[in-house]
Amino acid sequence: MSKGLPETRTDAAMSELVPEPRPKPAVPMKPVSINPNLLGYIGIDTIIEQMRKKTMKTGFDFNIMVVGQSGLGKSTLVNTLFKSQVSRKASSWNREEKIPKTVEIKAIGHVIEEGGVKMKLTVIDTPGFGDQINNENCWEPIEKYINEQYEKFLKEEVNIARKKRIPDTRVHCCLYFISPTGHSLRPLDLEFMKHLSKVVNIIPVIAKADTMTLEEKSEFKQRVRKELEVNGIEFYPQKEFDEDLEDKTENDKIRRDKPSSLKQESMPFAVVGSDKEYQVNGKRVLGRKTPWGIIEVENLNHCEFALLRDFVIRTHLQDLKEVTHNIHYETYRAKRLNDNGGLPPGEGLLGTVLPPVPATPCPTAE
Amino acid sequence: MDKEYVGFAALPNQLHRKSVKKGFDFTLMVAGESGLGKSTLINSLFLTNLYEDRQVPEARARLTQTLTIERRGVEIEEGGIKVKLTLVDTPGFGDSVDCSDCWLPVVRFIEEQFEQYLRDESGLNRKNIQDSRVHCCLYFISPFGRGLRPLDVAFLRAVHEKVNIIPVIGKADALMPKETQALKQKIREQLQEEEINIYQFPDCDSDEDEDFKRQDAEMKESIPFAVVGSCEVVRDGGTRPVRGRRYSWGTVEVENPHHCDFLNLRRMLVQTHLQDLKEVTHDLLYEGYRARCLQSLARPGARDRASRSKLSRQSATEIPLPMLPLADTEKLIREKDEELRRMQEMLEKMQAQMQQSQAQGEQSDAL
């Protein structure tokens, strides 16, 4: 802390302004040691409350992308996660749902409110992924879309006259749906996650998990995790971004680095989604009714939907956004600046012209 | 004496006894992408452990894997009747990122069996013709899709004129009853749209009883069959043990008609239509192949080409058989060996007969 400058500046300011009562500045006017007699409540912990109030007023953005073959229950799951019809759903078989020839990107925004907090949720669907006979490079449109959102944000950031709050369309979380074959990952799954895990937070989920018994589920999960590890694919939460020991222990439980306990609390979560309610033991629950029983979506003995929901929404929502901003976006930004010779991209800024957005990842991503 | 009774009503019994003695050959192909419960279903259908030693390779290995054709044989005996069942598996189908033309090896395989049979039929020694033609193909459709996928359509169109197709929805316990109905309906519509000919279960005779007719109609209505397979027996305390899959919310019983169509499939495939499948393969599909083959030979260009080919074989009818462009030399050597062996057998039998008649002759001389 410098001693001279703040003093003179404050004094000068005070002389210019109308002498009004000003709050005590956090920096002490004179270099003094902390007087032990001044113990007591300062009140800086109210900053949390202040931030909360601000967040409630401004609301926040959350962008979630769903990727997987058609019919794996992506839209149903998102609707179940956010307890509203936020994703377009081909629920009726009779509708003429033609599989698109190429992967399309469809982003639909909704504003959801809960407890006074407003969330602008955008669900990005990717119909056509993995549905063709030849699925080579079908992840490219998805990668391009993600990079385009980073680019949009970057352009706003480097503007001379910036918006106060840059609209955030970057993908904060990508749910990748694994087909419950019971064997292992499919080659397409590997390829997609290899390409995209360095660009966006990927959370793999095992879809339609009501086709697997407990043993099959646990074996499948183990195999999937091993395959991901062997191939160097880091899904969210990535080990390298754990900020402190607390994060590490909590995330380790989810990643299951510790020796296995009997309960399966780890990723990838085996989920079941539903938008229909049934009566079970006097309660109305979301579930699927079959001749041999009712599968309850929020029952932890049946599937891990509740774990996924708590993970994505109740505990790690903010972290997902932060990792996207501090890590993935920064990586992209650094790459772009490097490509541009250290100069920020943008028109009219020192005469530089915007280079085109790379459709494929730059070599450093590997 | 009964003047009215000639006695040929006993003919079916004679045929029955003969075929029981001869045994029964059946070749069943299973196709569909991996992870749809094909192996489990086969094990459930025939109560065997055909796939015990199987190892499913992991994803990285499957990145560059091409489709292979695997054959497994098993002899099943029940009620004095022996069935030699050959299972043809197609591991790797639909696995790769790029599955273009991945069905071609399968088509080739089916045609090779026809070709083999055509040669045998036109050969000199027709006593021991091995029928390795594929009599039926169980095609597994994913319950997770919204009907037939582009790959399903491509495969079915490539093989529907060459083999009896029975479409099946695998892992049907993923679906609620309404979803199953909707999926079946969608698949039926798509099959019609794409003009894919699946195996038509023949209509039952008008003189069958009502019960049978009703059952038959029900079975036809439930195509494609939504099946669940299991080799595990679930013993819930109190109730009798059943074959099924135990979940936390209940147990799916494989043989419960309200849970899945396993019983229907087993009845139609094994109990009632095994023979018909073989007949249709022979009378319709094989004849179609044969006609196409011979017709193409009747054209002048083809005839010259075939006669110039060093590996063609002259059959009794003097028509050189066409060679599939990709026939292996090794396979031909095998065929020649087989032919040689048969000739040898015949020779030995003739020798034995001669020796016998010689011995008899000596005996009669001695007398």
Q: Can you give me a brief rundown of this structure?
A:
Chain A has 366 residues and is an alpha/beta fold. Chain A has helices spanning 4-16, 46-58, 74-81, 140-158, 187-196, 214-230, 245-255, 305-315, 317-339; strands at 60-67, 106-114, 117-125, 173-178, 202-206, 269-270, 277-280, 283-290, 293-296.
Description:
Chain A is of the alpha/beta class and 366 residues long. In chain A, 34% of the residues lie in helices and 15% in strands. Chain A has one domain (52-273, 302-338): Rossmann fold, CATH 3.40.50.300. In chain A, the strands form two sheets. Chain A has a six-stranded mixed β-sheet, sandwiched between helices. A three-stranded antiparallel β-sheet of chain A has the order 7-8-9, with no helix packed on it. In chain A, α8 (305-315) packs across α9 (317-339). Chain B is of the alpha/beta class. Chain B has eleven helices and nine strands. Mean pLDDT of chain B is 82; it is low at 306-320. At the A-B interface, α5, α6, β8 and β9 of A face α3, α5, α6, β8 and β9 of B. Chain B: Residues 350-367 have a biased composition (Low complexity). Chain B: One of its GO terms (molecular function) is GTP binding. Chain B: Residues 347-367 are annotated as: Disordered.
